[in-house]
Amino acid sequence: MKQVSIKKLSWALAVTLIIFSGEVIGGILSNSLALLSDAGHVLTDAFALGLSLIASMVMRKVPDYRATYGYQRIGILAALINGVSLVVIAMFIFVEGYKRFKSPPEINSDVMLAIATAGLIGNLVMAWILGHKHDDLNIKSAWLHVIGDTISSAGVIAAGLIIKFTGWLIVDPIVSGFVGVIIIIGGVRVIKESLWIFLELSPAGFKADEIAKVLSKVPGIINIHDVHIWSIGHGIPAFSAHVQIHDQKISEADCIRKEIEHMLLHLGILHSVIQMECAECDKNGLYCTPKTIDAADHKHQH
């Protein structure tokens, strides 16, 4: 994790806390649920940015005996927590919005508009600070928080204008529901991407059978099996396989291994483990399931 990302997160967190304080005060003074909903979203922004900041600092640690792959998944864990927090806050907004939909309270649209406009400006500043291109799911999850809040701030401003000129109070819970939907969409997306990595499913764009077919074109390879592809972290795919070749010198076999690694590197896979074999193994399918040794077999072996 680059130092610049940590600085961006720190600045974004500071701006978020200022916006949150202003929207809570403004929401209470104006009695606007839409504004308080936006403040609730901003609070999750602050939580997300703070969590992402801590995770980014931890992710800078080099691999050691505790984490031989490094600490990349700390950031994925932070992203997962951020995603869940988005969904939880949206649920609270829906419940309160339903109550106000049935019985809309009086709202001070002038205060609502002033605070929401300041919030929108602040969110645009945060979005600019964090940028829009992210190779790190941790930073991406924080950015999604900010983008969602930017859209919701615009929605609150629209609600304030409608209330000011039409007196239609019911638009306040309607906009808060709109904000909740935006929050859930972003949250579910981050949760899905995080769980995809934690469950070690194949990264998007990578198919084991297609990779095996490409690698089988390397001269000297008889068969490729027991293929696995997963993600160590966001955008860090890893690959392992058994490669059957003819019985030959280690130096010759190593040339084949280097050619395989070169092809994998071209496909975007930086980390690979290749097991070279000169005879068929017990597991000869493309995707192999390890044999389970039951108690009777274990007793027989000993």
UniProtKB/TrEMBL annotation:
Its main location: membrane. It holds the Pfam family Cation_efflux. Residues 12-196 form the Cation efflux protein transmembrane domain. Keywords: Ion transport, Membrane, Transmembrane, Transmembrane helix, Transport, Zinc, Zinc transport. It is a multi-pass membrane protein. The keyword Transport applies. One of its GO terms (molecular function) is zinc ion transmembrane transporter activity. It is found in: Membrane. GO terms for cellular component: plasma membrane. It comes from the Bacteria. The keyword Membrane applies. The chain crosses the membrane at residues 42-62, 74-95, 111-130, 142-163, 169-191. InterPro entries: Cation_efflux, Cation_efflux_CTD, Cation_efflux_CTD_sf, Cation_efflux_TM, Cation_efflux_TMD_sf, CDF/SLC30A. Residues 207-277 form the Cation efflux protein cytoplasmic domain. Belongs to the cation diffusion facilitator (CDF) transporter (TC 2.A.4) family. SLC30A subfamily. NCBIfam families: CDF (TIGR01297). PANTHER family: CATION EFFLUX PROTEIN/ ZINC TRANSPORTER, RE54080P-RELATED. This is Cation efflux family protein.
